[in-house]
Amino acid sequence: MRGHTLLEQGAEQLSQRERLILQAVVHSYITTAEPVGSRAVVKRFGLDISPATVRNVMADLEEAGYLKQLHTSSGRVPTDKGYRYYVDYLMCVQEVTRAERARIQEELSERLNDADEVIRHTSRLLALTSHQMGLVEVPDERNAEICRIEMLPIGTRRVGVILVDNYGRVRSLVAKLDESLPAEGVQRIGRFLDANFRGVSMQGLHAAVSARTSSFQDEQRRLAEQALRVLALMPPSRQGELILEGTAQLFKQPEFQDMDRARQVFGFFEEHDRLVELIRSAIRDGEPQRSSIVIGSEVPDDELHEISIVVSPYCVGEQAAGVVGVIGPRRMPYSRLSGLVEYTAALLGSYLTGIAGMSTDDDVGTNPLVGGPSDGNHD
How confident is the model over 181-194, as pLDDT tens digits? Predict the structure, then answer.
């Protein structure tokens, strides 16, 4: 009798032959996007068993929910349950090739003077290298700690503010004041803030200065009051955001040639809050420093059941900062993409850690305000 053992046993107890054939079907379908028949499995993978035996095992796997037929006369394709078994028990994470490592390192190392650009370009590189949609979660600015503060005079009533956080990012803006401040006075305010408020969160800087103003004496109190007037002009801290690149890569996949289906998926990508929560829940359920995979129907939103997500966390120093990953069809090369995402996450974290260390030196580097913004607030 076919299938009775699979229905009664846990997924971990598939026989060696069943595991081999499931793995062959998954590999073949990922590569060709075509339903897989028994003869194709024997021929493609050189199995020393007859097509009839393979056909019987495939029927068992279908009855147990690991495979399905799209049409009565067609071959079989993996179900989400089949992909999950493959990922959990059969897949070996594939190492990134030497050529891919060299390309990623070269591209990112050219941007080491700008943490935000490193983050943005990482998403582009993931899309180009994986042929899927790349994503990087930007560290939440509300949780970032200030490592460096400078204020620069720009004209008579404009002040440039430069804030460097512990992720190595430089945030700059130009504030227009109601009254003029001498150049030396502006710089004194900057030195005062830098000396007293390093380690404060970006979001809490204004409140921290306000809370401590009354404790300062004379000159320092006056500096604190002037600083508050400048800081009040700063825009609110930015929440964690996602950098998504490679939309065109998804449009090339057969699964998204149907425009209604594609429109549903890409409409969801506009709702970053929901996507961020989905990705964070995947990381919470996964292992630290390893890729986490969400497959098809495991995504709680019905419109996303055609996609899978592979993500891995990255750290700056010892602190969790965000995630990197790829989004593609359920029929994605999980083995290769898991290795790529894990490698890229580790490399991004390493580069950002280095940038953060350099950004706390006495010289911030290239002044982001030179030749730049006009009146008003700028990030």
Answer: 788 888 888 888 88
Give the C-alpha separation, 277 to 280, whole Å.
5
State pTM to two decimals.
0.78
The answer to the question of residue 206 being in a domain is: yes
Q: State the CATH number of the domain containing residue 52.
A: 1.10.10.10
**In terms of residue numbers, what domain contains 157?**
142-231
Per-residue pLDDT tens for 90-122?
999 999 999 999 999 999 988 887 888 999 999
Whether residues 127 and 255 fall in one domain: yes
Q: Which residues are 313's β-sheet partners?
A: 323
- Measured CA to CA in angstroms, residue 204 lies from 143, 172, 207, 257, 266 at distances of 9, 17, 5, 47, 35
How open is the CA angle 291-294-75, to the nearest 5 degrees?
115
Residues 152 and 85 in one domain: no
Which residues lie closer than 8 Å to 206 by C-beta, 6 or more apart? Answer: 228, 231, 232, 234
CB 36 within 8 A of CB 57: no
Both 103 and 129 in one domain: the answer is yes
Give the SS3 label for residue 148: strand
In the beta sheet, which residues pair with residue 323? Answer: 313
d(CA 267, CA 214): 50
- What sign for the dihedral angle of Cα 285, 279, 298, 337? negative
* Helices within the chain (DSSP H only): 4-8, 16-32, 38-45, 51-63, 80-85, 98-109, 115-130, 183-196, 205-212, 218-231, 247-251, 259-269, 272-285, 334-359
Rounded CA-CA distance 148/162 in Å is 8
Is residue 354 within 8 A of residue 112, CB to CB? The reply is yes
